[in-house]
Each structure stands twice: as C-alpha cells, then as structure tokens.
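Let us work through a complete example step by step.
Step 1: write down the sequence.
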Amino acid sequence: MGIFIVIKFLMEQIFHACDIGNPCNDYENYISWAALLSFEFDQQAQIERQRGMEVTESFIYHDYSTLYKDQVWFLGNIVHPIWKQISCIFPTLTAYSDEVERNL
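Step 2: predict the structure and record it as tokens.
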C-alpha cells in the first residue's frame, strides 16, 4: 500500500508542475502567456468589484513592471523549485527546469 501513496504523491506533484509549467516554454512564448493570464486575472478582479464582492488584490494588473516582479517571485519561489525537484527524480526532464531558470 505504501508504494501507491508514493506514486500518488509523485503524480500529484507532476500534475501540479504541468499546470504551472508555462515558464518551461521559451521566453517569448512564456511571457506572452503570463501577460495574457495577468490580464485575465485583472478582468476577474474588475468583475468582483462590479458585483460588490471582495476583490482579490493579487489579481489586479498594474503595469509590466509589476508583472515582471510578480513573475520573478512566482518562478523563483514556486515553479523553479518544483521543476528542479522533478528533474532530480526524472533527469530526462532537466531541460524544463533549465528553461525556467533561463526565464527567471
């Protein structure tokens, strides 16, 4: 039974890494998608505001400077550590961790 728990945990981590794997793309593709997601989040914050709901502050788009700062934090603290660990377990995936590091 223990091995199944380990496999389940690994699969969850890989699934999560893929979900936030956009920074594994080349820089131009990655940053274009990051900007689009930022704009989408901002639209969500505007809808929340219009409906009188509590606005998710981190969803508010300010400018490209803030976008880049947020991405540096996201890549450095969330994406890169996950992909670095995955590449230790599966060395054939090291290219993805390397791409995140270049984008960072």
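Step 3: interpret the result. The CA atoms of residues 88 and 94 lie 8 Å apart.
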